[in-house]
Design goal:
The protein is α+β, with helices and mostly antiparallel strands and 716 residues long. The protein has five domains: 161 residues, Rossmann fold (3-Layer(aba) Sandwich); 165 residues, Topoisomerase I, domain 2 (Orthogonal Bundle); 127 residues, Topoisomerase I, domain 3, CATH 2.70.20; 124 residues, Topoisomerase I, domain 4 (Orthogonal Bundle); 92 residues, no CATH class. Helix content is 36%, strand content 23%. The protein contains 21 helices and 27 strands. The strands form seven sheets. It has a six-stranded mixed β-sheet with strand order 2-3-4-1-7-8. The chain has a six-stranded antiparallel barrel with strand order 9-10-13-12-11-15. It is flat, with a radius of gyration of 31 Å. The chain starts with a strand and ends with a strand. It comes from Mogibacterium timidum.
Length: 716
């Protein structure tokens, strides 16, 4: 009787790919829904025929216990019972479905003579599989199939080079330790800090602290306050239309080459009147440029694209991609953070582009069939778990499946197809021209762009093109010393503008830059911010059109979370230490000891200040009379507002932010502004949002239509 080999895959489609690649004979599904058959397996120099069962977990099956599952006494929130300890000595199935799946996997593993861990090649993939093996009591003598690609060639190579040597084992153990550290740390700080902050800083309000969610909420609040505190500065500039045969735009510039700005319309108009009807060409600079096709999408870039083009939420785009992958089977694994492809895909991708010769893609896909994707888009070292998003050819081809897609699915898949086809196409080439002219002693700058070879951009000709206020045309020959007519000139009145509130696209960018979440989790983190938790009065963030805006409740909650725990620096510090665990520079035990030591220090400090902090947390402490309606002003934590103020604008509108350009307004300053409409003395240490430079100024308060307006008074 042949012995048993069990291959533990993470997903069903991976199990199918493994079965095909290693040549399983008599392949069929057993009653547990797993693939099985016969296969040859090499042990050293000996090859042995084995019965093989390829089981799959379908992602995370197990989770850490919640506090009340560790000990029923933890149902009671008591500061004396903190910190709650967490470990992975005992795990629990995520739900009933995963429990049934887990039991079937454990049964297969229990009967195995050989086991291959074939989970995703990354920290989370290693954690998922190792927890299952731990639960099954199978943690020794495990072979590891290590591949980030599911092509037949890549799987065969990995199957023929299974990892089981001491060096590989150390690398995998460190990877597992890092995944375990991340999971236990998030549970530890999430539950312990939520209880500690709630018990010491609020009166009956639950603070839901999260390592990723709280810094993200804080960033949204900071952006909102920056916009609210922004003092608009009006200015004017001069815009012109120049040219003899072809007309192009220009603006008056200063000596440093930047747009010349005037404090007011009158000053600009005086200069406008001085400008003659001709300008002399001072210099002509030409520069050739190349735009290469963009790299393959990762989940972040397709989410951003769909947010900008169709206003799809991040979780909607991910859900569509998941359906294209799971249900329709025409897309590679979607939850990827890589924008590169693996070298083993090269030959396969030629067949993929041939499968796209239908409908609107036919013209471009057909011309690409004899081409190859350049090497710069292939980089195995930059693919950890999964390569970038590309179309996948199912049995029967892509076209049949494509016709059955709904509108939203087609919108997402069209973008991925076009991105993929563009990789085979030529780069787009252009010529940029900068012309400096002079009229009446004033310099004028004009920027022009002429596309000389459209290349891959022909594929996107129906999409909006961002031009950055550059004229896109060919102007022929313009030479230094030549006189050019000024056909039109005008003064444009405008004002400085604050940053925009966060959108889905900019929030995803922010999260990527600061390592908040992964491609698999960012959509969920964003969604959680907008969901009301338990008995709390609202969510911390709400969606207003396409913008994410902090709520009053969110600002109040943010105010009670210690600065360290909601800072981007805290996230970077944690990420750095997790990387050290993964690289073997820091042990799991030392990592967790550091997390626990910092919590215990915070526990001592916050517990000793409980009474004072709870007194401060009585937000509605009445201060001075509202200058608009006579009601009382109260301290909201984030600022001072009328007691009748409501964020939706239905009450009294008077409110003042507590922080202006980096300075916190004291109650004394507030009283001065209310009494004298200005501060008596200069306030030192304001910080410019643009340059970062510090300056001193007095503050002036104006009330327009019931709303406060703060401006600066600078002493001569």
């Amino acid at each position: 009787m042949s012995r048993n080999l069990v291959i533990l895959a993470e997903k069903a489609n991976a199990a199918e790919a493994y079965a095909e690649a290693i040549g399983v004979k008599n392949l069929h599904k057993n009653r547990d829904g797993f693939l099985e058959g016969e296969v040859s397996f090499s042990i050293g120099s000996r090859e042995e025929p084995l019965h093989v069962e390829i089981v799959h977990s379908q992602g995370h099956c197990l989770r850490l216990l919640d506090p009340e599952e560790i000990d029923e006494n933890y149902k009671k929130w008591d500061i004396a019972m903190l910190p709650i300890p967490f470990d992975d000595n005992k795990l629990k199935a995520i739900d009933d479905y995963k429990e049934r799946k887990l039991n079937a996997i454990k049964k297969a593993l229990g009967a195995a003579d050989y086991i291959i861990n074939a989970g995703d090649s990354g920290r989370e993939g290693e954690l998922i599989q190792r927890w299952i093996l731990k639960e099954a009591g199978k943690e020794r003598n495990i072979y590891r199939l290590w591949t980030s690609s599911l092509t037949i060639a890549a799987i065969k190579k990995a199957y023929d080079n299974l990892l089981n040597d001491p060096t590989s084992k150390e690398m995998l153990d460190n990877l597992y330790a890092s995944g375990k550290a991340r999971a236990i740390m998030d549970k530890y700080i999430g539950f312990n800090y939520s209880r500690l902050i709630s018990l010491t800083k609020t009166a009956g309000v639950t603070v839901n602290y999260g390592r990723c969610k709280s810094p993200l909420t804080h960033a949204i609040i900071e952006r909102d306050l920056e916009i609210e505190n922004f003092v608009k500065r009006p200015f004017s500039y001069i815009k012109l239309k120049l040219g003899n045969e072809i007309t192009f735009n220009g603006v008056l510039i200063s000596d440093n080459g930047e747009k010349l700005e005037f404090d007011n319309h009158v000053a600009a108009a005086e200069v406008l009147e001085k400008l003659q009807h001709e300008a002399k060409v001072i210099s002509v600079k030409k520069e050739n440029g190349v735009d290469n096709p963009p790299k393959p999408f990762d989940i972040l870039t397709i989410q951003k694209e769909m947010s900008k083009k169709y206003d799809y939420e991040a979780d909607v785009t991910l859900s569509i991609c998941q359906d294209l992958y799971d249900k329709h089977r025409i897309l590679s694994y979607p939850r990827t953070d890589s924008r590169y492809l693996t070298a083993d895909l090269k030959e396969e991708l030629k067949d993929t582009v041939k499968a796209l010769t239908f409908g609107e893609f036919k013209q471009y896909a057909s011309s690409c069939c004899m081409r190859e994707i350049p090497n710069k888009y292939f980089n195995d070292k930059k693919v950890i778990d999964h390569h970038g998003l590309i179309p996948v050819v199912p049995q029967g081809g892509i076209e049949t499946k494509y016709e059955k897609l709904n509108e939203a699915e087609k919108n997402v898949y069209d973008a991925i197809i076009k991105n993929f086809i563009s990789l085979f196409m030529e780069s787009s080439r252009y010529e940029k021209t900068e012309i400096i002219t002079e009229a009446s002693g004033y310099k004028i700058k004009s920027k022009l762009k002429n596309v000389t070879e459209i290349g891959y951009k022909a594929l996107f000709k129906d999409d909006a093109v961002e031009t950055d206020d550059v004229d896109i045309l060919s102007i022929g020959s313009i030479n230094e010393g030549e006189l050019i007519s000024i056909n039109e000139k005008e003064v444009v009145d405008t004002e400085t503008k604050p940053k925009q509130h966060f959108t889905t696209a900019s929030l995803l960018d922010f999260m990527k830059i600061h390592n908040i979440g992964t491609g698999a989790t960012r959509d969920g983190i964003i969604k959680e911010l907008t969901e009301k938790k338990g008995h709390n009065v609202s969510s911390t963030v709400k969606k207003d059109g396409k913008y994410f805006i902090s709520t009053e409740f969110g600002r109040s909650m943010d105010a009670v979370i210690p600065d360290r725990l909601k800072s981007i620096e805290f996230l970077s510090e944690v990420d750095g230490k997790l990387a050290d665990v993964e690289n073997g520079k820091l042990s799991f035990d030392d990592f967790m000891a550091d997390v626990q030591a910092k919590f215990k220090a915070d526990l001592i400090e916050m517990a000793s200040n409980t009474e004072v902090l709870m007194e401060n947390k009585r937000e509605e402490r009445e201060l001075f009379d509202c200058p608009c309606c006579g009601n009382k002003l109260v301290d909201k934590g984030w600022g001072y507002a009328c007691k009748g103020w409501k964020k939706d604008g239905s009450g009294c509108n008077f409110n003042l932010p507590k922080k202006i350009s980096g300075k916190t307004l004291s109650e004394k300053v507030l009283l001065e502004l209310l009494t004298y409409k200005t501060t008596k003395k200069e306030i030192k240490g304001f910080k410019s949002q643009k340059s970062g430079k510090k300056y001193n100024a007095r503050l002036k308060l104006d009330i327009v239509d019931g709303k406060s307006k703060i401006s600066y008074i600078f002493n001569n």
